[in-house]
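Re: that chain you flagged

S.,

Sorry for the slow reply, it's been a week of failed gels. I finally had a moment to sit down with the sequence you sent. For the record, here it is as I used it:
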Amino acid sequence: MQTDNTENLMDTPTHISIIMDGNGRWAKKQGKMRLFGHNAGRESVRACTEYCAEKGVRYLSLFAFSEENWGRPVDEVAGLMDLLGRCMLEERDTLMNNNVRFQVIGDRTRLSDALRKGVEALEKETAPNTGLTLVIMLSYSGKWDILQAAQRYAADCLAAGKTLPLDETGFSTYLATAGIPDPDLLIRTSGEQRISNYMLWQCAYTEFYYTPVLWPDFRKTDLEQALLSYATRERRYGKVE
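Prediction finished late last night. Pasting the structure tokens below so you have them in one place:
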């Protein structure tokens, strides 16, 4: 019988984040449209969510749609938004039965009224859940996040009539991810080795793991390999032991 090597890991990440890449390439290999790949990626989301809940990971964030993705073909964008709306409805019982809290982070002003209301309803319903928090990064970019944080800080200064004291910890409270610990481990699928304007502030000391596996093929065994790699890292945060 195969043993689960992660049982012996002493340092389970508090927050795992994944850039879900390779849906389009996966679909192309199947001779299908890109949306076919996005839909197939749902099983990977389910597998990773279950695994993280089992292992005691507190936060799993998934980069689902970037600010830059709004520039994709209109039909693809509309299909992705429709897919997300359907996923929320279809996965609602699974989230509730597994004590998972659902949260969306990003520029909601660009979402349709129907999708925004659906997001808000699911967030409210799952808010009492105390297990894993599943964070969907939707209409998000790192530069947008830093800019909106600076704007919020400036508004507070204007309201106070003076420049308010600010340090790194204080600035983090203005970010869209306020209240969520920075990622311990960032995984990117499909072999690309960049972070694509994703959580630029939050990933200052995050451990990166790149895999050639396309997102629709990513399963629990692939996530386990990432965790085993993470377990070998020495996180000194610029200091000397």
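What I noticed first: The helical segments are 23-29, 34-40, 42-55, 74-97, 113-126, 142-160, 168-172, 220-231.

Talk soon,
D.
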